[in-house]
């Protein structure tokens, strides 16, 4: 048995989920062919169906893509300021 977890790409997950949706083969056959557990195939299939509506919401995705980059910059700055504050608070504390 493997001791490390395998990380599958989003493209691979979508491929497996589409195969399961086509129902040309059983989920057990699909799982066996790809070296997965059947429950994993069912999970990816469910997530694929639930997330399908997001494909048609392109207008919202375009505006949030710029926000994601800005969000990353702000989070980086917050981290820097937090480290700086912690460093200075240790230096300004009471001396023993």
Structure at a glance:
It contains 4 helices and no strands. The protein is mainly α and 96 residues long. The chain has 2 domains: 49 residues; 40 residues.
Write up this protein.
The structure is a single chain. With 96 residues, this protein is an all-alpha fold. It has 2 domains: 8-56; 57-96. It has helices spanning 10-22, 27-34, 38-50, 58-91. The longest helix has 34 residues, at 58-91. The radius of gyration is 23 Å and the shape is elongated.
Percentage of residues in DSSP E strands: under 5%
Low-confidence spans: none
What is the H-and-E element order? HHHH
| Main sheet overview | none
How would you describe the shape? elongated
Count of alpha and pi helical runs: 4
Overall helicity: over 70%
How many β-strand runs? Answer: 0
Using only C-alpha atoms, the radius of gyration works out to 23 Å
């Amino acid at each position: 048995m493997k001791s490390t977890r395998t990380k599958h790409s989003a493209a691979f997950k979508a491929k497996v989920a589409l195969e399961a949706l086509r129902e040309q083969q059983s989920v057990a056959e699909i799982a066996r062919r790809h070296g997965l557990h059947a429950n994993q195939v069912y999970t990816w299939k469910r997530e694929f169906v639930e997330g399908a509506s997001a494909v048609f919401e392109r207008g919202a995705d375009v505006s949030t893509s710029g926000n994601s980059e800005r969000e990353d910059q702000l989070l980086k700055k917050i981290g820097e300021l937090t480290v700086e504050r912690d460093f200075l608070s240790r230096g300004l504390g009471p001396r023993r």
